């Protein structure tokens, strides 16, 4: 049932991808904003209480409906599984941004590519060169494919899979919603959402990195993972991007010298002694965007193949 649920949800999403502003996502955004308003008194403990309230409000009903469907009819449980996977997946949710950037760069329209990238990432893209636009697009695509697809897959395979998938997506959303907006960046309220998502995503992030390595350049992916993942302040993102960049043969991440020169401790580090060019791969180009599409699809097929083998193994054991 798990394999069929994921396959059906993927096929439906390819035909009818969810919009970013669909009613369910807007409802969750409004609910998160209200809970933050009710609970936020400037302490991390307030964020912990708010996180558990929101997650419980969404996962407990999901689990109860799944249990009722299982008791009634396996077909009802399958339909509920497909619906939940469809709602939690985001394989094509932001693909229009990626496609628009790819088409703009292919046409030589750097200004349009900057606009699309700014809308997607909410960062200032003024004056960015093609290589930087390409690099940021590749990074966003790799992290997005993990959080919107592979992370959901992992948690859906757990007991009471629909509720676990909802929990993962809500946790990922709150880690952004309660930390990334300008008015929340210095708030202690969102610290718990960040911490708990780190543990929730610890195993899925590494499995995604392994998948990228298996379907890409394995040696460079593993080498980059071991030696360059710590360039990112977020450990999990660093693992995904280091392995993904190595698998693609593309150097990702901000140059470490730039970060050091801008830091207060730059005077204590000899930045000119850093061997940054030893990282395998080449600078990102518009062609790298097409390589990302192939890598993600191959990783997706690998996950589906492993899941199918797991189904056959269970059937053989039974």
From TrEMBL:
Pfam families: CobD_Cbib (PF03186)
Keyword Membrane assigned: yes
Domain of life where this protein originates: Bacteria
Keyword Nuclease: no
Main location: membrane
Coiled-coil regions, chain positions: none
Keywords for this protein: Cell membrane, Cobalamin biosynthesis, Membrane, Transmembrane, Transmembrane helix
Regions that span the bilayer: 50-68, 74-91, 149-171, 196-215, 295-317
Membrane topology, as annotated: Multi-pass membrane protein
GO molecular function: ABC-type vitamin B12 transporter activity; threonine-phosphate decarboxylase activity
Pathway named in the protein's UniProt entry: Cofactor biosynthesis; adenosylcobalamin biosynthesis
GO CC annotations on file: plasma membrane
GO biological process: cobalamin biosynthetic process
Subcellular localization, as worded in the UniProt entry: Cell membrane
Family of this protein: Belongs to the CobD/CbiB family.
Function according to Swiss-Prot or TrEMBL: Converts cobyric acid to cobinamide by the addition of aminopropanol on the F carboxylic group.
Name of the protein described by the UniProt record: Cobalamin biosynthesis protein CobD
Organism (species): Undibacterium parvum
